[in-house]
Amino acid sequence: MAARFPNLRWWHIPAGLLGTAFVIFWILVLSGQKTWFSEQPPLQIIPDMDDQFRVDPQEASRFFSDRRSFRTPPEGTVPRSGRAYPFGPGDLALAEKAFPQPPFPESPYVLAFGQNRYDAFCSPCHGPDGKGNGPVVQRGFVPPPDLTRPEARAYSDARIFHVISAGQNVMPSYATKLTEAERWAIVFYVRQLQRQSALQQQAASLSTVPARQ
Questions:
Q1: Exposed, middle or buried: residue 110 (CB in 10 Å: 0-12, 13-18, 19+)?
Q2: 40: pLDDT strictly greater than 80
Q3: Nearest-CA neighbor of 189 among 142, 150, 146, 147?
Q4: Choosing a second label site near 41 at 20 to 30 A (CA), which of 61, 82, 166, 168?
Q5: How far is CA 162 from the centre of its chain?
Q6: Domains of the chain by range and CATH?
Q7: Bridge partner list, 157
Q8: Residue from 89, 121, 132, 96 nearest 185 by CA
Q9: Going by C-beta distance under 8 Å and a sequence separation of 6 or more, which residues neighbour residue 120?
Q10: ∠ Cα 201 199 197 (to 5°)
Q11: What pLDDT is attached to residue 75?
């Protein structure tokens, strides 16, 4: 060994091992791949906005004086993905005049899309069958009206669309949460729930009719 490496000394080997371990240690530390648990974030040379000043849903804000993280859009704000709903809760007559019929026809795709949006935004209160028995109501919230009752079946499509868009009583407006097409798809799906409820009621009434002797 000495003949092949005349300048090598015995202490070069442990020094090299220590140097290699030192380099590997800092590579692990700087990359965040530490071999022990820590609640401290890793040392980041270029953080790339990994850690931002933001708030999670329903979390209070430390930036605004009222502590509200969800901010009300300024009056007249128009969404980039659509248009602002122009009517308030009491403008039913104007809504029915502005929307005499849905902008697109019913189809299997529209019904499936409407069910998807209904299940996500409406069923927590109205229930999966529209009868107002959703999980929120079962936990003590005020039950909403039955969407399948005869009075609701007589509503125009524009009225149902208007209630979804402008809100009614304790129900808020969903115009900022659902696009116009999504709201119309929900209208079609509510109509399907009404038809299903009517058929179930008809079948139940026929089953109670006594057979002729």
A1: buried
A2: no
A3: 147
A4: 61
A5: 21
A6: 1-47 (no CATH), 92-208 (1.10.760.10)
A7: none
A8: 121
A9: none
A10: 70
A11: 79
